[in-house]
């Protein structure tokens, strides 16, 4: 799961707690971790979700201003099943 540096920093600060990805096959698992440039992230709950079911709150938790901004971003992503992923920062190492 590739995450841009500014998003990683926001996760580290606790400002972003959700990520969205479209996958044909998930590259992380619930309860797992992900090593990144800023440290280790925890991967929490992962749920398939339709665009219609994504809430404004989900969008803000993912760092978007609103749902239209999320939809614009989503239009740039590859095809696949949309997934809502809870993320957190664990620290420099795990």
Model description:
The chain has 94 residues and is of the alpha+beta class. The protein has 3 helices and 4 strands; from the N terminus they run αβββααβ. The chain has a single domain, classed as Archaeosine Trna-guanine Transglycosylase, Chain: A, domain 4, CATH 2.30.130. The protein has helices spanning 5-12, 56-61, 67-74; strands spanning 18-23, 33-36, 39-48, 81-91. Strands 1-4-3-2 form a 4-stranded antiparallel β-sheet. A hairpin with a 2-residue loop joins strand 2 (33-36) and strand 3 (39-48). The radius of gyration is 13 Å and the shape is globular.
| Whole-number tally of structural domains | 1
First CA to last CA: what distance?
18 Å
How many strands appear in the DSSP assignment?
4
Indicate the low-confidence ranges by residue numbers.
none
As a percent range, the share of helical residues equals 10-25%
Order of strands, main sheet, comes to 1-4-3-2
Shape call = globular
Strand residue content: 25-35%
How many strands, which pairing sense, and closed or not: the largest β-sheet?
Answer: 4 strands, antiparallel
The number of helical runs is 3
Per CATH, the class reads Mainly Beta
Mean model confidence by pLDDT: 94
Oligomer: single chain
What is the name of the CATH architecture?
A: Roll
H/E element order: HEEEHHE
Name given to the CATH homologous superfamily: Hypothetical protein
CATH topology: Archaeosine Trna-guanine Transglycosylase, Chain: A, domain 4
